[in-house]
Amino acid sequence: MSCLGMDVMKCSVIIPYYNRKKILMNTLIALDRQVGMEGCFEVLVIDDGSDMRLDDEIKKMDLSIPIKYHYFERGAHSCPAFVRNRGIERSVGDLLVFIDCDIVVKSDFLINRYTAYVSAKNADIFQIGFRNSFLPSSITSIEEMIRTKNYAQDLRGLILDRLSENFQAMRFGWILSYGCNISVSRKLIEKYGAFDEKILGWALEDTDMAYGMAKNGVKLVYNPCVDVYHQYHEFKERNFSEWLENLDYLFSEHTRPDFQMMEYMKRLFEQDSLLICVR
What we know:
- The protein is α/β, with parallel strands linked by helices.
- 37% of the residues lie in helices and 19% in strands.
- The chain is built from twelve helices and 13 strands.
- The strands form three sheets. The protein has a seven-stranded mixed sheet with strand order 5-4-3-6-11-8-12, with helices on both faces. Strands 7-13-9-10 form a four-stranded mixed sheet.
- The radius of gyration is 18 Å and the shape is globular.
- 35% of the residues are buried.
């Protein structure tokens, strides 16, 4: 079997999961509908100690794609970085694709990521996609919500409209990297390291990885063909305090002036503004 007429280069889609069964099912169904990548990718659901295991539930879905489900007991180590790294360790693909359990992708999502990777001739690139957010609605069909554009566009798009879609033209493009929609080759992970598991709680383990990649000369690339959709759910207000705690930790780890400018991000992430953006 081949992908795009070339030798198989399997992709691994790694999904951290915790207590969001219904929306995860939508995520898996969307991945099962991928075109042009049949037999060329696997999906790993890494459960960070949910109240109920999903082994049987996933089997009952009878999907056509290979899904590996791994469960880890909840503990002090639990965090997005921990489960993403466990997914990396258990994956086999050369291209590692990271999305969240509340993300819905279009049918050409993986082929577009794979094509970009191949077009770069396996160059050192770190792909970033944006995330549009479904609005609270009585519409139950995800396809209908996409067709009617019942979603808020990613605010990062406003930045690119003012500046450039060329991340290499921006000194701080790594700030715009969110772990809900990124991909990177296994060789780059092995060379420069995986996610920092000292970053506990919500957010910034993705920004930290993008910063490390960029610092080492890896090209950050925005791929407009892989934008995804975020399923609406309640936002936990403690996430903001965890974001601040993680930022303080990263300040102690990265003393270069280019990272210290993250101090200004606090003004953008004032609690009221943050809640509006994520909801």
